[in-house]
Specification:
The complex is a heterodimer of chains A (501) and B (167). By secondary structure, chain A is mainly alpha-helical. Helix content of chain A is 49%, strand content 6%.
């Protein structure tokens, strides 16, 4: 036989199995595509039940956040807060957070959002919706960031009608984790050490939460609308340019002379720390070891023969076996005792700081009353501003005592120190005005404290109740009419508030 | 005839290159865990590992391939690769994968090499007792007690129906 014939035959012999292998690979790839296929869900679909049709376990576990429904009135537990927040919404109403299921409900019900009568009234800006609903990224996508952040809270009433849900963290096409609030990307990039573009999947399991569980402020931003009219938007912004620490952010605000509100009693130009969960978490041992929020707050659970990430976001102590015990040895009892002790340590310094700062405000008010000058008061007020900022930065993210006990206690310590510095300076001023023995009035209960700051509580409650029965109901009806609200997301909702309703 | 032979050789080379590309053959040289889920078969094992405490300490190959020498590692990789390709092509595997004796020996060695500080004394003590298997003192393997490490006890191929890392 000729050499070329042999080669041809050999080639054909090799070709046949290669061809079969190619067919097999193609088949496997097709199968893989089917296995990994994602359902057809509309972009930024705000109704979580629509996603839940394809992910029933994740959806059901998310709906189980309904069980976290206790209203814990923190003003009642710590009346000093009322004094510390005099002149600011938080002195009216402040409860411990409930499950994600209630996130929109509680935003509507809190006395802080007031009792608007129409889209133009009420105390708060549109930015207060930012973390409450997947309708927010939907609206931003539709109208643009600046337009969304312009106007009063009530302006978006009938549009924002679903509680935080699937579309806040998941891409509709790939189901991958996604950040739907651009201010987080800008914040990370401004700080520089963890640019958003470098985020891995493990980082994303934290960052989707960081969209909301962080310190922020509303930055006034001028823009021109389509009619050529100049508008001012209040855009949610992360103050991270100088770093994530309490002192870095304090410096950021000082550099910009930023003021959240002027204190009603002490006239201090105050800062309000929100809930710097991320900023504190990254300083702790779990953050340093590369854990993500989802590792402990959304444990991987087994249901029959299936495993999935629980979407019942809550305390890991409710499921120690599937969280702590993945890495640690020890008994559940030991874990609870350890965490309890950490909480007690924080509470000790926390109560001390609140007492010192509330008294500082009242003593400053007395000094003003006696005729102290702005020049005399300035150094003490600066200490109050920094002291209260640091106190709140350390505790406002409720989990900081566990996430980062050292940092929490360090910052609380510096808050107490600042508070005492202020009181020392104020005592000298009081002495100058013949009131060296002045004693701050009693603020040992929520009612007494609200009387001390002159808060017309009953009037505020009366107005709010009108809002709850009127505009609030109308908004949900409007949302349903427009096909964006899913009434099932509020099925079984019971009106619960810290004030009489 | 000569032309036909040349053409056939070219076609074979072309097909081979196509296969290299289509099967992502070269990616198997890497140690990246994501390579191990090129086929969907390992999805559950990947997902369970990714949710375990081993994820930040040991990748797939750190446990599943020998670590004593590069040559042994590559030989094992080639052997496993061939077995996996055959199983994948002829669909000879079921929903519950079981490890081969050869792979079990490697994993046991790797458990010991990382956890030597803890198990060193245990191994010394075990020497005082009878050996039932050449590699394993007392014939027991770590995971006969530590059953959930690191993949959990539920690891059927249909266990993790939704996992976000997978493309």
């Amino acid at each position: 036989m000729k050499r070329s014939t042999i080669i041809t035959i050999l080639c054909v012999l090799v070709m046949v199995p290669m061809l079969l292998l190619t067919v097999s690979i193609k088949e496997n790839k097709a199968e893989q595509k089917t296995i990994n296929a994602t359902p057809q869900i509309d972009k930024l679909e705000p109704r979580s039940a629509e996603w839940g049709k394809y992910y029933p376990r994740q959806f059901d576990s998310y709906m189980a956040t309904k069980k976290s429904d206790d209203i814990r009135d923190l003003l009642k537990e710590n009346p000093a807060l009322v004094v510390m927040w005099a002149g600011y919404g938080f002195s009216k109403d402040y409860n411990a957070p409930r499950g994600h299921y209630y996130i929109l409900e509680d935003n509507l019900n809190t006395l802080r959002t007031g009792a608007p009568l129409n889209p133009q009234t009420g105390p708060m800006p549109t930015a207060c919706w930012t973390c409450k609903s997947p309708d927010v990224p939907r609206l931003i996508d539709k109208m643009g960031e600046n337009d969304f952040y312009t106007g009063k809270w009530a302006r978006h009433g009938g549009e924002i009608v679903n509680p935080v849900g699937c579309a806040d963290c998941h891409d509709n096409k790939t189901m991958k984790l996604t950040v739907t609030r651009d201010y987080l990307k800008r914040g990370l990039d401004s700080e520089g050490s963890k640019p958003f573009a470098d985020a891995s999947h493990q980082d994303m399991r934290t960052l989707v939460c960081v969209q909301c569980h962080s310190e922020y402020y509303f930055k006034e931003t001028k823009w021109t609308d389509s009619n050529g009219k100049e508008q001012t938007a209040k855009v949610v912004t992360f103050p991270w340019n100088n770093g994530f620490a309490a002192e870095d952010i304090e410096q950021y605000y000082d550099e910009r002379d930023f003021v959240d509100w002027t204190h009603k009693l002490s006239k201090t130009k105050m800062l309000k720390a929100q809930h710097p969960g991320y900023e504190t978490f990254i300083t702790g041992v779990h953050g340093k070891n590369g854990l993500a929020c989802a590792d402990c707050h959304m444990p991987y659970v087994r249901e029959g023969g299936v495993k999935y990430s629980s979407h019942k976001v809550g305390s890991p102590l409710e499921d120690i076996a599937n969280t702590c015990l993945n890495c640690h040895s020890g008994t559940e009892k030991e874990f609870i005792a350890t965490v309890q002790r950490k909480l007690e340590r924080k509470e000790e310094l926390h109560k001390m700081a609140m007492d010192v700062l509330a008294k500082a405000h009242l003593e400053a008010a007395k000094a003003w009353e006696l005729g102290a000058t702005e020049e005399e008061m300035a150094p003490a007020l600066k200490d109050i501003r920094h002291g209260q900022w640091r106190w709140e930065f350390s505790i406002a993210a409720h989990g900081s005592f566990f996430h980062a006990p050292e940092e929490t206690l360090r910052v609380l310590g510096s808050a107490i120190n600042k508070g005492h510095d202020a009181r020392l300076k104020l005592r000298i001023i009081l002495a100058k005005y013949n009131a060296a023995d002045y004693e701050a009035p009693d603020f040992s209960s929520k009612e007494k404290a609200q009387a001390v700051i002159g808060l017309p509580f009953d009037k505020i409650v009366g107005e709010k109740n009108k809002f709850l029965k009127g505009l609030k109901e109308d908004w949900f009806k409007e949302g349903e009419k427009n096909g964006v609200h899913d009434p099932k997301s509020r099925e079984g909702m019971v009106l619960k508030t810290s004030y009489p309703n | 005839m000569k032309l036909l032979a040349t053409c056939s050789v070219l076609v074979v080379i072309g097909m081979f290159l196509f296969l290299v590309n289509e099967s992502k053959m070269l990616s198997y040289m890497s140690s990246d865990p994501e390579v191990c889920i090129t086929c969907h078969t390992m999805n559950t094992h990947y997902a369970t590992w990714q949710h375990s405490s081993h994820r930040s300490r040991a990748t797939c190959v750190d446990c599943h391939l020998p670590r004593d020498s590069f040559i042994n590692k590559m030989l094992a990789k080639a052997r496993d690769g061939y077995n996996h390709s055959v199983a994948m092509t002829f669909k000879t595997y079921g929903y519950n994968l079981r490890i081969t004796d050869d792979a079990a020996t490697r994993i046991q060695d790797n458990c010991i090499s990382c956890h030597e500080g803890i198990v060193g004394q245990m191994l010394e003590n075990a020497k005082l007792y009878s050996k039932t298997e050449s590699h394993v003192q007392m014939g027991r393997k770590c995971w006969e007690c530590h059953r959930g490490v690191p993949h959990g006890i539920t690891r059927n191929l249909t266990t993790t129906q939704t996992n976000l890392v997978l493309e």
